[in-house]
Design goal:
By secondary structure, the chain is of the alpha+beta class. The protein has 25 helices and twelve strands.
């Protein structure tokens, strides 16, 4: 009745105003509806009391436009600096910077539920996957059955595979350093992808050997992240992309969906391993995935093994190479840090009579190396978008009540710049903050969102990233002197869920490690 009455009122108003044509009447109705909706969202919505950009309070398109612009790593920090710790970035979404909120949204034992945004990462024709699983019980089962493969003890068993890729990377860099500046964004990415190939597919992906983006995999994954990370707020999500009609249209246009080749290649690799599972004496992550069981203690379906192998790319490739590039950039941009780190590594090699590879466990005896990696990945974490959840009941942040069911999230980069935690110099790269006070360092470890926090949803590929980054940075600074080639524009960052850094060109000068051993 209320809708009918409103319709009659609008028609009456249009008639009196001389608006008699159907399209004009429709336009007037739309205008009235939009005005009413705008007034509601600005003044009467349950989040009307939460500050935020004017357009963000009116429409989610503001947030989506910012996401599409690829500069969210800058936008979200600036937004919180202007509007405070609790900011409305869409009509029903709030971004938060707060230590208590982080622990209560993502920590163990808390009941904040993931939102349907994550469903965009759950392709309809594969199998349930860890990242996009909304049900806590199902997520716990999926994580548990692969957790041992991602454990630090397991990753250290695979360290030989990682070192094999790193040796090839250093060899390639020595060669290319003689030809001019080297694009470290490409080389670190190729290295990280080859490592996950070794761990999850039985061999490297050929990125370093061929010096190419094999099958366009890295480019396609960037495209997928760019599209999917911005589709999570739209109805239909993945179905809009992966359905028979879309596939047919793309085929007619001669366009291959970005991940089809990769999915088919993964299927082939997995099937080959399954066919010879009892003959393989190589212990790697793919071997673990092939031996998984479902909840009924039965062997998993082929699709479940395939999805875990593909998940490894998301958990261990770009996240790791982003961290490596951050380390290179911030070390090269800070001469004192550069000299101190190189001196620590050189002295450690000498004192421990090392020659060549740096084992991960030994790297943990170099405090400044650890501090540099923690600080570089704090100030520019690989994940930048909010990790969105639905608020639990009675959720109050800094005196601001947020209604149950509201979409809330914390951006790792905004949280990692919180001055209450990190001090007034939170926006500065300063590794010593991790070494000055043991109690503060422990708080930093539990407050950092470099790997998505410290709860049950923390990035499962964390240990892969840690091992690779420590081995890479320690051996890189041992083998090369380096500097940023273009100091006016050292790199270009495009944020689509991950903070993809491009065009990090560096001048490399190989060091004479033989003479270093003699000194």
């Amino acid at each position: 009745m209320a809708v009918q009455a409103l319709w009659l009122d609008v028609r009456s108003y249009c008639y009196e105003a001389g608006i008699t044509r159907p399209w004009a009447t429709l336009a007037a109705i739309v205008a009235v509806a939009l005005t009413t909706l705008s007034v509601y969202r600005l003044f009467f919505h349950p989040l009307a009391h939460v500050p935020g950009p004017f357009l963000a309070r009116l429409t989610g398109l503001w947030r989506s436009a910012k996401y599409a612009g690829g500069k969210w790593h800058e936008d979200i920090v600036a937004i919180h600096e202007r509007y405070g710790r609790v900011v409305r970035i869409a009509p029903n979404e709030v971004s938060i910077v707060d230590e208590w909120a982080m622990k209560n949204l993502y920590g163990h034992g808390h009941n904040a539920q993931k939102t349907p945004w994550y469903s965009v990462w759950d392709p309809p024709r594969t199998a349930p996957q860890l990242f996009s699983e909304l049900d806590k019980k199902a997520h716990g089962f999926l994580r548990k059955r692969v957790s041992s493969a991602y454990s630090m003890s397991s990753i250290l068993k695979y360290e030989t595979f990682i070192q094999r890729c790193l040796d090839l990377l250093l060899e390639k860099l020595r060669l290319h350093s003689q030809r001019g500046p080297v694009d470290m964004s490409e080389w670190t990415n190729a290295f990280a992808f080859d490592v996950v190939g070794e761990l999850g597919y039985g061999s490297d992906l050929g990125m370093l050997k061929t010096e190419t983006d094999v099958n366009g995999l890295r480019k396609n994954i960037f495209t997928v992240f760019k599209i999917l990370s911005n589709m999570g707020y739209f109805p239909g999500q993945m179905w809009l992309i992966q359905n028979p009609l879309t596939d047919a249209i793309l085929k007619l246009l001669g366009i291959e969906p970005p991940m089809v080749d990769f999915q088919q290649w993964t299927l082939k690799q997995v099937q080959q391993r399954l066919d010879h599972i009892d003959e393989v004496d190589r212990e790697d992550m793919l071997q673990h995935f092939c031996r998984m069981e479902n909840a009924n203690k039965e062997p998993v379906r082929l699709g479940e093994v395939v999805i875990e192998a593909m998940n490894l790319i998301g958990a261990g490739a770009d996240t790791t190479s982003i961290g490596m590039r951050s380390c290179l950039f911030y070390v090269a941009s800070n001469p004192d840090c550069y000299r101190r780190l190189q001196q620590e590594v050189d002295m450690f090699y000498k004192d421990n009579n090392l020659d060549g590879p740096l084992p991960y466990l030994l790297s943990q005896k170099m405090p400044y190396l650890q501090a540099v990696i923690k600080e570089a990945t704090r100030i520019l974490p690989s994940i930048v978008y909010q990790l969105v959840r639905h608020t639990p009941p009675a959720f109050v942040v800094r005196g601001i009540p947020i209604p149950e069911g509201t979409v809330v999230g914390i951006s790792p980069i905004a949280q990692n710049r919180d001055k209450d935690i990190w001090g007034e110099d939170a926006n500065e790269f300063r590794p010593d903050r991790w070494l000055e006070d043991e109690a503060k360092a422990k708080r930093f470890d539990t407050s950092s969102m470099t790997f998505g926090g410290n709860g049950p949803r923390m990035c499962i590929g964390r240990n892969i990233a840690l091992v690779e980054m420590h081995k890479f940075l320690g051996q890189f600074i041992r083998n090369f002197d380096f500097e940023i080639a273009n100091k006016d524009q050292p790199w270009d960052i495009h944020t689509y869920w991950f903070a993809f850094q491009k065009d990090l060109f560096m001048k490399l000068k190989p060091r004479d490690t033989n003479s270093l051993r003699a000194t």
